[in-house]
Specification:
Blueprint (H helix, E strand, L loop, with lengths): L1 H5 L2 H21 L12 E7 L5 H16 L5 E8 L4 E8 L5 H14 L6 H6 L2 E4 L4 E8 L7 H17 L4 E7 L3 E7 L1 H6 L4 H11 L7 E2 L12 E2 L9 H5 L2 E4 L5 E3 H4 E7 L6 E3 L2 E10 L5 H16 L7 E7 L1 H30 L2 H24 L6 H20 L1
Antiparallel strand pairs: 1-3, 1-4, 2-3, 5-14, 5-15, 6-14, 7-12, 8-9, 10-11, 13-14
Length: 412
């Protein structure tokens, strides 16, 4: 075989160029990850039942959804968590040979079949189905260095200006924020409720009925008299937005014309929607959020794009607001790639030195020197055939391969 290529140098050069070309094309198209893709597709479903404890969530939400989803096509196993804050999370693991996009659609369609059996509060907030891995590729904390802002403000700012942008990045499966946004908090007084013969259900029903965005219609719309010249879109006050407006909600009316308003039996304030979680960094008030990637994401490209969004958004931050990257799993990959590059350069210099010292001819040195990059770059073409990714394990194998190629080049 060696004589065949030695006698046909032009053919050998053409083959080498083809190998290098295929290797370069594969190199720029291969996904980059921290570890090889050995984890099966995972679909996460979440719901929220405000005000319910873990047992209630388990009985009214978990059992309904899991009975419906159990045995879905391609499913391997599932696990769920119900918390006392009313949140419910279900993780469904599918067989390794299934497609994550198809699995996500199947879960969404099957979960919708059970939606009518869920409590109305859960139906209102909806079910969230996402295709993402359980590991966090990036952990970021948005904080106030001088504690100017509270957690609710930081969470609300992140929801409006940061999270939506990051979720649109290709490869991002989910951005999980830790904290609660602004909400209208109603602190009921049990004694005052009992005095007026009211229950919690009476209060919640009144709030739902009187806090709605109802259409007002149009004045002067067709059919109208012939002399009608103008048309107006009517506007009415929609959803309530201040504690004072909520406090004036009528809970009960008496036959004598007296009213029991919400402010008579409760204290209404603006605050965090939930106090079940808190986040701090170096003792400063903050809100943390983790970026979860899809199973087929290029971690370097995705995390770089997320960092770019954060850096661009920093220019528009209000005073005394900053962010800090707490966890960045791409640092290991970048370090591995740098080590491989250093090993490649060092090995190439070693080949040049050893071959030239023994042969004393630059032309004779050129052949093994060219053989090293052709062999290494061509290796990436086999990555595509074997469905490999560029990760810490394959980079370690590449370092070993460089050593073998260098030894062979010196021997030749």
């Amino acid at each position: 075989m060696s004589k065949f290529f030695i006698r046909r140098p032009i053919f050998a050069i053409v083959v080498s160029l083809i190998i290098v070309l295929l290797g370069l094309i594969s190199l720029f198209s291969l996904p980059i990850a921290q570890y090889p893709q050995i984890s099966p597709p995972t679909i996460n479903l979440s719901a929220n039942y405000t005000g319910a404890n873990a047992e209630t969530v388990n009985q009214t939400v978990a059992q309904v959804l899991e009975n419906q989803l159990n045995g879905i096509e391609g499913m391997d196993y599932m696990s769920s968590t119900s918390s006392n804050s009313g949140s419910y999370s279900l993780s469904i693991v599918f067989d390794l040979d299934t497609d994550g996009n198809t699995d996500s659609v199947n879960v969404q369609n099957t979960a919708n079949l059970a939606k009518n059996s869920l409590p109305s509060e859960v139906q209102t907030t909806g079910l969230s189905v996402r295709k993402s891995s359980s590991d966090m590729a990036l952990m970021v904390n948005l904080y106030s260095p001088n504690n100017t802002y509270d957690t609710a403000f930081l969470k609300n700012y992140a929801d409006i200006y940061l999270l939506d942008k990051m979720k649109r990045v290709s490869g991002v499966g989910n951005v999980n924020a830790f904290g609660s946004t602004y909400a209208m908090r109603v602190w009921l007084n049990p004694d005052k409720l009992a005095e007026r013969g009211l229950t919690v259900s009476d209060v919640t029903s009144a709030i739902k009925e009187q806090n709605q965005a109802a259409p007002a219609g149009t004045v002067g719309a067709p059919p109208s008299p012939a002399h009608q010249e103008k048309q107006y879109s009517a506007k009415i006050e929609g959803r309530l937005s201040t504690p004072e407006q909520f406090g004036n909600i009528i809970i009960k009316s008496g036959s004598d014309g007296q009213f029991v308003r919400l402010k008579d039996v409760a204290e209404v304030v603006t605050g965090a929607q939930s106090s079940s979680s808190d986040s701090k960094i170096d003792g400063k008030t903050g809100v943390g959020f983790g970026v979860q990637l899809t199973n087929d994401a290029n971690i370097l490209e995705t995390v770089t794009a997320v960092k770019k969004i954060l850096e661009e958004s920093r220019n528009d931050f209000p005073p005394d607001l900053d962010y800090k990257i707490v966890v960045d799993n791409t640092s290991f990959i970048n370090a591995s790639i740098e080590e491989v590059e250093e090993t490649f350069v060092e090995s190439l210099l070693l080949v040049i030195l050893v071959v030239f010292v023994f042969l004393q001819k630059w032309r004779a040195t050129l052949i093994p020197v060219l053989a090293v990059p052709v062999s290494i770059i061509g290796t990436f073409a086999t990555f595509v055939l074997l469905d490999f990714t560029i990760n810490t394990l394959t980079l370690f194998a590449l370092v070993l391969a460089i050593g073998m190629v260098v030894d062979d080049a010196i021997v030749v």
